[in-house]
Automatic annotation (TrEMBL):
PANTHER family: OS09G0334500 PROTEIN, WRKY TRANSCRIPTION FACTOR 30-RELATED-RELATED. The keyword Transcription regulation applies. Belongs to the WRKY group III family. This is WRKY domain-containing protein. Keywords: DNA-binding, Nucleus, Transcription, Transcription regulation. GO terms for molecular function: DNA-binding transcription factor activity; transcription cis-regulatory region binding. GO terms for cellular component: nucleus. Its main location: nucleus. Residues 260-269 have a biased composition (Polar residues). Pfam families: WRKY.
Length: 361
DNA sequence: TGAATTTGACCCTG
DNA sequence: CAGGGTCAAATTCA
């Protein structure tokens, strides 16, 4: 872990720059006239922050990955009340947990913010998984209620993934989605791309094309930590600087169906969303999510974090594209999972991600 | 009719 | 006790 030399860092920066490039391209497109000014502003701030980040990387020359300020440490959490089976409801009552480190069954909390452009009544984006709503609660201090969802295959396959969806106070078209756990369910046969054989020879080409029309008229950003170096506020829209954002002009988006505008069964976008949601940053405490501003230090530690996030995102992207390209029946989550564990161990292979830059070129 | 949502009660934690 | 998460009966949906 200490052997991260400048080379890898350089690639990282390159990746960042590619990201910037892409953002600029998008901004360019939006400036053409058909884009909303808000979006342009958003993109601009995005570019700014990413640039800032890159500069920080270059200046610091290296990044030693040490999350010093995770503060919360929260970990906490939940006792393992997840014992769905009545079979074993014995034996876990009085346990003063001095330390419940669930080594293998860790609950992860991934918060992403999803904005769907389109109608006023916009359904949350379909992330490629089927969810069943099991509750809804009014949250104190929040304008909109929070919906509780769990994977449809909870019983059938024991998939314990859950998510919470809630509209942002400021912008009702923006949703905060918090994912818990990971999907262990196996994906059904892909109906949409069924009759779509793809040669494995030019997977890269396929992936590239996928990547190109990968984005639709929605914005997905992963929110790890708060506290951007700059405190841009309220122009119109978001006030938090997201580490990552994907958006593009509304190319032929599916016309509003009767109910679900995003009824596409398995589109690249969905895959991306799913993958992205799987690859979020760890250690986000409740209090953090509730506190948009707070803390001001913009140390190098943050950069390390950013890196990690970026790498995660990139790997997610790669996973998504690969998955889409090969259309493999094997669970996509498996790949992502593997990547995640690698990341967890701080053993990410830089060489793996690098090819993505060529996609953006 | 089976599956998914709605919705208030219930439960757990701080 | 309040706030947030889950259960489950009733209800709607396909
Ligand atoms: Zn699942």
């Amino acid at each position: 872990m200490e052997s991260m030399e400048g080379n890898g860092g350089g690639r990282l920066v390159v990746t960042e720059l590619s990201h910037i490039k892409e953002l600029v391209r998008q901004l360019e497109g939006h400036l053409g006239g058909s884009g909303s000014p808000d979006l342009c502003k958003h993109l601009a701030s995005q570019i700014f922050s990413v640039t800032e980040r890159s500069i920080g990387m270059i200046r610091s020359g290296h990044f030693d990955g040490h999350r010093k300020r995770s503060a919360a440490a929260v970990a906490a959490g939940d006792l393992d009340s997840a014992t769905p089976s009545p079979l074993s409801d014995v034996s876990d009552l009085p346990f003063k947990a001095t330390k419940k480190r669930k080594t293998s069954t860790e609950k992860k909390r991934h918060q992403i913010r999803v904005s769907s452009t389109g109608g006023v009544e916009n359904p949350p984006v379909d992330d490629g998984h089927s969810w069943r709503k099991y509750g809804q609660k009014e949250i104190l201090g929040a304008k909109h209620p929070r919906g509780y969802y769990r994977c449809t295959h909870r019983h059938s396959q024991g998939c314990m993934a859950t998510k919470q969806v809630q509209r942002t106070d400021e912008d009702a078209t923006v949703f905060d989605v918090i994912y818990h756990g990971e999907h262990t369910c196996v994906h059904k046969a892909v109906a949409a791309g069924a009759g779509k054989p793809e040669t494995e020879t030019d997977t890269n080409a396929a992936a590239e094309s996928r990547l190109h029309d990968l984005s639709s008229g929605l914005t997905v950003k992963i929110e790890g930590l708060t506290a951007p170096p700059q405190q841009q506020q309220g122009g119109g829209g978001w006030n938090a600087m997201p580490p990552f954002c994907l958006s593009s002009p509304v190319s032929g988006l599916a016309p509003p169906d009767q109910h679900n505008p995003f009824s596409a069964p398995s589109t690249p976008e969905n895959r991306l969303a799913a993958a992205a949601s799987s690859a979020a940053s760890p250690a986000t405490s409740d209090s953090m999510a509730a506190a948009p501003f707070h803390q001001a230090a913009a140390g190098g530690g943050d950069e390390a974090w950013r890196d990690a996030e970026l790498q995660e995102v990139v790997s997610a992207l790669v996973a998504a594209t690969t998955t889409t390209a090969t259309a493999q029946p094997a669970p996509a989550t498996a790949m992502v999972d593997a990547d995640l564990s690698a990341l967890d161990a701080f053993e990410f292979d830089p060489g793996f991600t690098i090819d993505i830059t060529s996609f953006f070129a």
